Amino acid sequence: MKKCIVLFHGDCDGAIAAGLYIRRFLRDMYPEQIILRHSHPWRLNIDLKRVLSEPDIEMVVLVDLALSEDNIQPLLSVAKGGTSIIIIDHHQSSEKTLNQLKELDNIKILWAVVQSTPQVLAQSILRNLNNYENLLVNVANICEGGNVEDENVRIVADKVKLVLAVEPTNIELIHKTVDYIVKGDEFWNAPIFNDVFWKAKWLLNLLLKKILVKAKTVCDWDIVSFTSPESLIFAGLFGIASSEHMKKVKKSIVLIREEEDKIVVTIRSIKKKALDLCQTIMKNIDHKAKSTFGGHKEAASLTIKKVYRLREVEDIVENVIKNSICAEK
């Protein structure tokens, strides 16, 4: 029996987009013929190659994954072999890669630089959204930094974003979220969500306090670093904490965290310079350490192979800010 793999970013807007797509377009195959897999930017190359090598797959749906040029060749090989590929994304950094793939018959691309990936679906192929689906699109937009007047929607968004972020390797939680969406359930009220929420809230508040204490300011940018043990404690909360810190102190931020085999740089910019700063940092890194980067003007991230020590990456980031952003002033 032929099957479809849905590989999605395991965050708020990625899970919502995957759930909405399956709910509307793959419902007749769900769950028996659908293989759910989730990924994150730091391990996308590994997960994508693993997914594309699965046997008896007639369709692969890639959702909210900020594909880079490193992903082109595996996708081309699979598409030329007859497998249908659908790419749904909203990351600005994906544009160059997607332009190289869009001419292939077996690849369909749904992409636009909008607030969230569910928003891409809503303005392209989803028609007559019901109240539940509309709510989820709004929730995803808030998760990605948008605003909404409805306080209840904001509360749901904050909860979903936090819970999915704090346990980025919790397969049951992330895949259950997609399952709830396909079935039309209010997953944010499920026990599996409530059990994690208060832990996530407490950890986020602790992380925000640590950022305030550790921050070093260079030309209106805060630079903050975390060691491997600290990264382990706060897991997937660094992106959310960076955004919250930026809103609170009205300054852009570069958060650098050391992990077991890599260093991750998370950038949030008030003046929409995040993606540009990512690219400039990449240019100042030795080719042996270069990995992947992606995101948007407001929010972007860079993963560096652990050729450098944490302090050395801090110095590179600080010098880039001084030589580019400070120089502009």
UniProtKB/TrEMBL annotation:
Gene3D superfamilies: 3.10.310.30. GO terms for molecular function: nucleic acid binding. InterPro entries: DHH_sf, DHHA1_dom, SSDNA_exonuclease_RecJ. Residues 240-322 form the DHHA1 domain. This is DHHA1 domain-containing protein. It comes from Ignisphaera aggregans.
